[in-house]
Amino acid sequence: MKIITVVIPCFNEEKGIGKVIEAIPKDKLKALGFNTQVLVIDNNCTDKTVEIARSKGATIITEPIKGKGKAILAAFNNIDEKTDIVVMLDGDNTYQSSEMIRLIEPIDNGFCDVVIGTRLGGKINSGSMSFFNRIGNWSFTFLVRLAYHGSITDVCTGYFAWKGEVVKELSKYILSDGFAIEMEMITKMVRMGYQIYSVPITYNRSEKSSSLHPVSDGAKILGTWFRNLSWKYDGTKK
Ligand SMILES: Nc1nc2c(ncn2[C@@H]2O[C@H](COP(=O)(O)OP(=O)(O)OP(=O)(O)O)[C@@H](O)[C@H]2O)c(=O)[nH]1
Ligand SMILES: [Mg+2]
Predict the structure, then answer these.
(1) What is the CATH number of domain 2-230?
(2) Does ligand 1 have an atom closer than 6 angstroms to the CB of 206?
(3) Ligand 1 atom 17: the closest Cα is on which residue?
(4) Ligand 1 atom nearest residue 70's Cα
């Protein structure tokens, strides 16, 4: 059997985490030849996230330093060496776990190395993305396509699938601790020469209020886009 590891970064996601784990299509994945492992990253949760995740069979990784980037790097450093495919999605039940079947298909069939779930090219349900965030996401995506020439259609998405070996290599170069992590991963993966394509996904309204600060986080995301323009992959860092 092949192995798929599902990574879910969490900061106080007691409302969503149970639903996200339960909806992982384990039976369908088994029929495709995959055993599923679930890693939940406890990024300083003070609610019942950890208890709920554990009761649903997830392995808990603890990352005490706050920030989505830190949580993702902790996950990458704890992935089973033998993992064939890594999938990541948020713990707030805004992405649909059932849709991971479509994200992994192009990787499993050798079409590409990385797939991003695109909200901008998919279904954005009512109330899930503010007008301001939509403009920001379109603008960042345009800038990445313009300067990096990647076939990317939603740079700030939280739904990814990678070949296991891509994550091993990419994790050596991750520096972002917060919400610029997606921009960092995408721009660096383009520079590393990986084949990245998108599949449409559904984006649902979050049950909790947004903790992303459009202006300050937007500035950090733009700064990461700019900084990585001169980033070169040397393939030697251990
Ligand atoms: N806010 C926040 N989220 C974190 C942190 N560490 C991990 N996460 C997780 O990262 C994922 C995305 O966080 P969200 O706050 O939903 O941010 P977002 O989806 O980019 O933006 P909005 O939902 O529009 O606010 C969630 O699963 C969080 O639980 C952290 O330190 N802060
Ligand atoms: Mg969210």
Answers:
(1) 3.90.550.10
(2) yes
(3) 212
(4) 6
Cα pseudo-dihedral 138, 140, 142, 148, rounded to 10 = -150
What share of the chain has pLDDT > 90, as a percent? 91
pTM of the entire structure? 0.96
Q: State which ligand 1 atom lies nearest to the alpha carbon of 13.
A: 29
The per-residue pLDDT for range 35-65, each reduced to its tens digit, is: 999 999 999 999 999 999 999 999 999 999 9
- Kindly list the domain boundaries of the chain, sorted by start residue: 2-230
Long-range contacts of 226-234 (CB under 8 A, 24+ apart): 228/183, 228/184, 228/187, 228/188, 228/191, 229/147, 231/187, 231/188, 231/191, 232/191, 233/173, 233/188, 233/191, 233/192, 233/193
**Ligand 1 neighbour 159 (Cβ under 6 A):** no
